[in-house]
């Protein structure tokens, strides 16, 4: 299978996820987490290191797993493993800004799901990305999600196709 075929179609309309209203997505729930940017996160020009944007995905994902999916996933006999990750930089950020992180899911399967991340500062989109996560047992082999996990992940799933890229660009401008 080609990589492009493996990635859900919704992720190719990336700007459709960057609406001015961060919660304006077709899902039952959207997870929200706030991250503060500090001087340690920036370079000599006072803008945030790009690697921090990827780090935010991990922070948001871990908090979502703990608060919303299972607060003892390691005790569930396995772990989540990242198979694929991508991040799009939209606008620079600076120390002492507060980043609003939003997480939804798409393409949920018995052993994997895609997590969609949107990051905003002051209501303006600054970046977005996604991760494909798998569940693996202690033997590092892919396993089905533990009982109840798919149902909880599905609460955050985008329910319908997002608007086409052109319509979304009008919203972002």
Describe this entry's structure for a reader:
The protein is α+β, with helices and mostly antiparallel strands and 173 residues long. Helix content is 22%, strand content 28%. The protein has a single domain (29-159), classed as Hotdog Thioesterase (Thiol Ester Dehydrase, Chain A), CATH 3.10.129.10. The protein has a five-stranded antiparallel sheet, with helices on one face. The chain starts with a helix and ends with a helix.
- Unreliably modeled segments: 162-173
What is the end-to-end distance?
A: 36 Å
Structural class: alpha+beta
Query: Shape from CA axes?
Result: globular
List keywords for this structure.
4 helices, disordered C terminus, globular, five-stranded antiparallel beta sheet, Thiol Ester Dehydrase, Chain A, 22% helix, 173 residues, single chain, alpha+beta
Put the structure in a nutshell:
With 173 residues, this protein is an alpha+beta fold. It has one domain (29-159): Thiol Ester Dehydrase, Chain A. Helices cover 22% and strands 28% of the residues.
Strands, helices and their partners?
Blueprint: H1 3-6, E1 31-36, H2 50-69, E2 79-89, E3 98-106, E4 112-121, E5 124-136, H3 149-154, H4 165-172
Antiparallel strand pairs: 1-3, 2-5, 3-4, 4-5
